[in-house]
Each structure stands twice: as structure tokens, then as C-alpha cells.
Write the C-alpha cells for this entry.
Amino acid sequence: MLERHQHEFGPVLPVDLSAPDVARLDFTANNSLLQDADLRDTAAFEALVARLLAAQQAHIGVGGYLENRVIYRRSPGLFGPDPGAPARSLHLGVDVWLRAGTPVLAPLDAVVHSVQDNSSFGDYGPTVILEHQLEDTPFYTLYGHLSRRETLLLRPGMRIEKGDTFTEVGPAPENGDWPPHLHFQVIADMLGLTGDFPGVALPEERDKWAALCPDPNLILQSRWL
């Protein structure tokens, strides 16, 4: 369904995600720079992101959809809560790594579905979920790692028009204690959840979660994704 309406979507961020200074970042085990990185140290993690961007002469990083990542080892209690059990590492959204304070825009007319501060270390931090309609079918977009001040102004049921700024990218530590970035995810069915939704899944459940969470680049339309 989203493919048929790509011409209708506005930008999620006020930047060109197909510009030459945007680069795809790799957070899988294939990236040797991650092997010895202290990812629990957010300042060191932010310096690593800056290094990855500089290596590609870029200012903004993108990537992550269905990427089997190693960076969630920084929060084992969140992504692998049961010792000996498989840990969640399959990323279900797209991350856009850019400066805190960047406005976040609604790509389509929306109603605020839910708002929540998921404040555990390594979680989403302030989170907004918007509900949209296409062809009389609802779908949802999730925005994580936001600014607390702006996000707390929102209430479920508020209407937001396409192109409106409704929040902004948050700084550490209030953004879940991550280097500044936006987690953007598309959700077909909220499964009865509010204010939160899995953004990382078990790799062996890839097909199930890919069906629930379509490719966000159908909306972002970045040539680097």
C-alpha cells in the first residue's frame, strides 16, 4: 500500500537524505571498529559515530532496517533479559544520525496515537507514535530518541498536519542515552500497545516482524537506503 502513495509523503526531517553528505552506517559484526568499542560509554559511542561519518566525508548517517546489529550489547538487560536466551538484535526501523535539536516533521496528516518516555538506558527515551490513514487503512509511524521538552507537549488525539513540526531529535541522556539520532519506524498493527513498540526483534523472527514493520524508506525515500 505504501508504495502506491510514495508521491504523497512529505519529509520526516528538514534535510535531504539523498544528499552527498549522507552516508550509510554499518552497525553489524562486519564493522571491525565495533569489536572493541565501549558502547556503554555514550560519549565514546558518539565519537565513534563521528569517526564513521568522517570516514565517508558525511555529516548525517542513515541505515539499520532489518540490520542484525551488535550495538545492543550495551543494554543486555533490555535486549537480552534472560541469561542464556537469544538476544534481540534485528533492527526494525531506520536510524538517522544527526544533531540534537533537529525538527521532526509529520510525513502525512496524522493523529497522535500515544506518547511515552521510555527512559531505561538504551531504550527509546521520549517516544511519539502517530496514526495515519491511507485507502481507509490505518498505519502508524514511531519516532524515538526525542527531546523531552517538546514531546511532553503532545497528547493522544491531537491532530497534526502533514509538514508540521511536532517534536525534535533529543540529546543524551534524555534520549535513552544514545548519540543523537532519530529512530523512525513504520508499523502496520500496534498489537494493542501504546507509547512503545518493539524496535529490535529476534533475527529468527525476521519474516514476522518485516511484515508488521514495512521498510521506512518507502516514506524517507533516501538513495542511500
User: Anything to note?
Assistant: The domain at 2-220 is CATH 2.70.70.10 (Glucose Permease (Domain IIA)).
